[in-house]
Predict the structure.
Amino acid sequence: MKPFEFYTLPLFSDDRGSLVPIELKDFIDWSPKRTYFLFGNTDNRGGHSHRIEKELFICQQGELTVKLHDGIKWHEKRLKSPADAVRVDNMVWHEFTDFSENAILLAVSSTNYDSEDYIRDFDQFLNETKE
């Protein structure tokens, strides 16, 4: 399995509105432990990696840019729709930038919050991915 993957979720629209169903089993192979969402962002978010935690990020509203580093190179994509998502495994550096004013990003996490799981120094992240 790739250390990250971008997805286009199914989107159904009719005269009543739109619906994006998310069958988590189709996108993650772990049990969700925590969810949170980002909104009202005026600066970049993320800028770290996790040793254990895995996450699924879903663009709920607006637009934002996802920047990922897999220990070898950078990958970047603009999320523009509630059907845009990205799965980020552990040991993948992730950053979120260029939020539109109304952007909301939902995160589904494999772990409860643990400050010890974070790698916040990019050089340390690169060193640990080589081990």
Observations:
- The longest helix spans residues 122-130.
